[in-house]
Amino acid sequence: MRRPSDPPRDPRPRWFPWAILAAFVLINVLLSANFMPEPAQRVTVPYTTFKEQVAAGNVIEITSRGEAIQGTFRQAVSWPPGGRAVAGTRFETQAPQFVDSSLVPLLESKGVIVNARPLEEPQPGWFRLLVSFGPAILFFVVIFWLTNRVSQAQAGAFGIGRSKAKRYSEEKPSITFADVAGIDEAEAELEEIVDFLKNPQKYQRLGGTIPKGVLVVGAPGTGKTLLARAVAGEARVPFFSLAASEFVEMIVGVGASRVRDLFNQAKKEAPAIVFIDELDAIGRSRGVAGGFGGHDEREQTLNQLLVEMDGFDSRQAVIVLAATNRPDVLDPALMRPGRFDRRVIIQRPDRLGREKILEVHTRGVPLAPDVRLADVAQATPGLVGAELRNLVNEAALLAARKDRNAVAREDLMEALEKIILGAARHIAISPEDRRRVAYHEAGHALIGFLLPEADPVQKVTIVPRGQALGVTYQMPIDDRHNYPREYLVARITGALGGRAAEQIVFGDMTTGAESDLQQVTAIARQMVTRWGMSADIGLIALDPVSQDNFLGVEPVRPRWYSDETALRVDQAIRSIVDECYERAVELLKRERLRLDALAEALLARESLDEREIRAIIDATNDPVQSSAA
């Protein structure tokens, strides 16, 4: 039943033009059959048989052109004899190339009528149909094509203003909440949306209205798009999905036209869900230039989106879901009540959430008896759903490469190392450089064991991975949501352990500590400018970062404090780094025997796990000095 708010529809059904075309073709076929009948079939006979029939007086007339002769028998003649003979009174034959002077007197003596008009040349059926009404069909097709183009041009030049949204209907295999795990809080917030789409009268009878727009916010890979599709799958309603960047073109007005077309389609299919991915592509705050040629178009698209969200009634059961990882850059007009008035935050999954996500992604993957998903979840802090799916896929590929029938724990751990540390590289390294790398990584690992505040060392290797010549992997026992100052200092000290070991053993330094220094500088700067952990600067935030920024990068902002304060910030950062470096040098000098033992073990075995590292440290006769000593 069409509502008054729906746009007017074309009274003619969609099959109407095709019905006219079919009727036109049928009429032409009937006329062709009546006025252009098929020529009668002729019997092809040899020239000798033709002369025999002339001599027998069985030929009435002939028509000749060149060497071809056609004519009519008085009585039907069958040829060839026996088998599949063809009988008829109309015949044709081919005269020999040599001159037969006896034929003409024979024809005259038997009174055969000789014609000199052109021979009848029957055409194939498809050619006659094409000649009879082909031009009429072509004319009709051209008119139909032009009509469609004109109608499309009303929404944009030749359909360019039509929405490119992909439609997923309820008949197709859908995703439900059973396919989404690890984000229970977000699911609970969206259950009300699903219930409204299933039973809108339940809320409307008391005058309540469901939010028109729901903004799903989270880090990349946390499952924003998957959750939106699960909402549509649970509600069993049409689902229109597209990226915000598909609205904007260089031609001004196209984006706004596509927004109108998208909402018109959704209103016709209501109840329905419109999902816009990466909303920040068109929803950025207005007044900030967005690039040559696209600034005005993006703002017009955003304005049209705001108008459309104000223009439809929530009783139409059209809900707009949008996803972004940059809510801090969205225009305030989008976030006000009446538009995107509900925000669903998707956090990175905790250990239990990661275990549930792994259970979903391993449904179709055979696992060996030694695999415990709880252990894998504990070994993957900070990983989101997309990364965990990639982990399972990499492990399955590794197991298949080894011709195994199930994925073992070893495959999962190897895949984790490949994802986090990078793929192993087989490059030639000189013995001197290999020894330096061994001491560098031994310095990281030893300080990780000496400092109780640091994350436990899980593995250390001098096998080149990614861009690094060696890697020390430290994994927290559980997820951390709050970082004490002692922990941050321990991380800086451990990161400087490699450079300290090189300085102690070789007396000089190399470029191998580049990534370590970048990590150290970033942590120390945040301690000073964001977290108030420097006595020289005090409890002020000099570089605040929005809590809605899920990209893990600091936005570029103009510095609002003085040059004198900036100098003090630099001095405070240097002070923290220098203190941690001195501490690392002191610890490694005290534990030189254990440092040498770890380095020699790495040179012999290339990789050491936690158990092997602890065994080497315990077997060395050098008392461990704690950080409190």
Assess the beta-strand content as a share of residues: 5-15%
Q: Uncertain regions: pLDDT < 50 for 5+ in a row?
A: 1-9, 154-161, 289-294, 623-629
Q: Which CATH architecture of the largest domain is right?
A: Up-down Bundle
Number of strands: 14
Molecular structure report:
This protein folds into 4 domains: 43-121, 2-Layer Sandwich (Signal recognition particle alu RNA binding heterodimer, srp9/1); 166-346, P-loop containing nucleotide triphosphate hydrolases (Rossmann fold, 3-Layer(aba) Sandwich), CATH 3.40.50.300; 351-420, Helicase, Ruva Protein, domain 3, CATH 1.10.8.60; 431-619, Methane Monooxygenase Hydroxylase, Chain G, domain 1. The chain has a 6-stranded mixed beta sheet, sandwiched between helices. The chain contains 22 helices and 14 strands. The protein has helices at 16-35, 47-55, 103-109, 125-153, 184-198, 200-204, 224-235, 254-268, 280-283, 295-311, 332-335, 351-361, 373-378, 385-401, 409-420, 431-450, 485-495, 497-506, 514-529, 563-590, 592-605, 610-619; strands at residues 43-44, 59-65, 68-79, 86-94, 113-115, 166-168, 213-218, 239-243, 272-277, 318-324, 340-346, 457-461, 471-474, 607-609. The chain is elongated, with a radius of gyration of 42 Å. The chain has 629 residues and is α/β, with parallel strands linked by helices. Strand 2 and strand 3 form a beta hairpin.
